[in-house]
Design goal:
199 residues; alpha+beta; 6-stranded mixed sheet
């Protein structure tokens, strides 16, 4: 019954093309050792005590397939409106002897111009089955160049006071309450990467 079941250290990259259009996000998730032990069980097909790329590949394919049901835990918006994503690309997984790391690109279905409204994305599990926390070292990177006058920011971790205020706010809501923005409970606690452009 307790949540989360999996702990994940993550990095993300904001992807921008040569015309300054935002094309999607690249993510890197490093799972806890307990998850790796469970997930790799039975995959050492040659019995050498290690896990090569070919042995990990079925797990990676299954991860990507199952993550589709949850929109890959990547939620991109512009002007507060949810943006549809395309099919995941460039996915792979590695094992360093103790932890698994999954990499993939989640592209937007259609690139967006950041000058046409505030863009943001969050990576989180609405059910909190998986805990996603940004790494302290280089948590977010920019791939490409934003248009002149545009900047990005990873919003800071909520303070204890802010967390308590959110808990109190939610405690007064019924179970069928829907946030006016259309976001779920988990989103209220996720750290967004926000792109804003001056006039």
């Amino acid at each position: 019954m307790a949540h989360p079941h999996v702990w994940t250290d993550m990095r993300s990259s904001l992807m921008v093309d040569g015309q300054g259009m935002i094309t999607g996000i690249r993510v890197e998730w490093t799972f806890d050792e307990g998850y790796a032990t469970f997930a790799l069980e039975g995959l050492d097909t040659n019995g050498d005590g290690s896990y090569g790329p070919d042995e990990i590949r079925p797990l990676t394919d299954e991860n990507i397939k199952s993550l589709a049901e949850s929109d890959y835990f990547g939620f991109m918006r512009q002007g507060g409106k949810r943006l549809p994503h395309g099919a995941v690309t460039d996915y792979a997984q590695t094992y360093d002897g103790s932890r698994l790391t999954l990499f993939f690109v989640l592209p937007l279905a259609t690139p967006v111009d950041p000058r046409k409204g505030v863009f943001d994305y969050k990576v989180y599990d609405p059910d909190f089955f998986i805990s996603f926390d940004y790494m302290k070292d280089a948590p977010v990177e920019l791939e490409g160049t934003l248009p002149q006058g545009c900047t990005w920011e990873l919003k800071p971790v909520l303070t204890d006071e802010e967390l308590e205020a959110k808990r109190n706010f939610l405690s007064e809501k019924s179970k069928d309450w829907v946030n006016e923005t259309g976001e779920d409970f988990g989103s209220l606690f996720a750290r967004p990467v926000v792109v804003t452009c001056g006039s």
